[in-house]
Amino acid sequence: SGVSGVDDATVPQAFVVVLAGTTAAALSRLVATTEALRRTREQLAVSAVGAERERVARDLHDVLGHTLSLMVVKAAAVRRLVPTDPAAAASHAEDIERIGRTAMSQVRDTIHDAQAPTLEEQLGAARDALSAADVVTSIRIESPPVGVADELLAWTLREGVTNVLRHACADHCWLTLAHAGGAHRLTVCDDGVGSRGRPHGQGGLEGLRVRLESAGGGMTTRGTPEGFTLTAWVPDEQGEA
Q1: Helix (H, G, I), strand (E, B) or coil at 108
Q2: CA angle in degrees (0–180, nearest 5) for 111-113-116
Q3: Phi, psi at residue 217, to the nearest 5°?
Q4: pTM strictly above 0.85
Q5: Helix axes 119-132, 2-81, angle to 10 degrees
Q6: Domain range 118-241, its CATH number among 1.10.10.10, 2.40.50.140, 3.40.50.1370, 3.30.565.10
C-alpha cells in the first residue's frame, strides 16, 4: 500500500518534470528560430536595398551617360554652325533644352523605376544623335522584339550608341537587329578607333552585361584597328513566350 502510494505520486511528478523540460526545450527552439528569422529578414532587407541601389546606379549611368553625350554633341554642332547657319544652330540649341528637360524627367522615373526605354524610341534617338555628330548611320531591323526583350535591347542600343559618341571618333555606324536561333540579336558596329581610348573594367558595358545575363542573354565586344563591334542577344522567351 505504501509503495503503491509512492508510485501514484511519482508518476504525475515525473510527467510534470518531463512536460516542463519539453516545454522549455520547445520554447528555446522557438526563440532560436525567431532570432534566426529576424536575422534572415534583416539580411534580405540589406540585400534588397543593395540590389535597388545597384539598379538605380546602373540605370542612372545608362540614362545620363547617353543624354549628356547627346547634349555635348549638340553643343558642338551649335558652335560649328553659328557662323554659317544660325537657324540650324538655333534648332540644335532648342534640342539641348528639350533633352535637358527630358533628362530631368528620366532621372525621376529611374529613381522610382517608373518607365523603361523602348527600342523604337531609342532608334529615333540614335538616328538623331549620330546625325548630329556627323556619323553616317545604317539601320536594318528584322522582326522587332516585344516585352522584356524590347526593353533589354533598348538599353543595349542606348549604351552602344553612347559609346560610339564618346569614344569611337567614327565616320560610319551600322545598327542591325536580327532574329535567329530562338534569340533576337542586336549589333552596333562602327569604323572608329576600335578598343583604343575606351574604358575597361566596370562601367556601362559591364552594367549592360549584367542586365542581359540576368535575362538569359549575353553580350560580346570586339575591337580591331578597323572599328568596334558590340553584339547582344536576348532569347525569345523574354518577350514572346
Answers
A1: helix
A2: 120
A3: -100, -155
A4: no
A5: 30
A6: 3.30.565.10
* Strands (E) located in the chain: 136-141, 172-180, 183-190, 218-224, 227-235
Angle (CA) 94-130-63 rounded to 5° is: 70
**Spatial contact of 104 and 88, defined as CB atoms under 8 Å apart:** no
Helix-helix angle 86-111:2-81, to 10 degrees: 180
The string of pLDDT tens digits covering residues 20-55 is 667 777 777 767 777 777 676 666 555 544 555 666
Question: What are the distances in angstroms from CA 211 to CA 25, 151, 177, 189?
Answer: 48, 10, 18, 20
DSSP, residue by residue, 54-117: HHHHHHHHHHHHHHHHHHHHHHHHHHHHTTT-HHHHHHHHHHHHHHHHHHHHHHHHHHTT----
Q: Please state which CATH class domain 1-115 belongs to.
A: mainly alpha
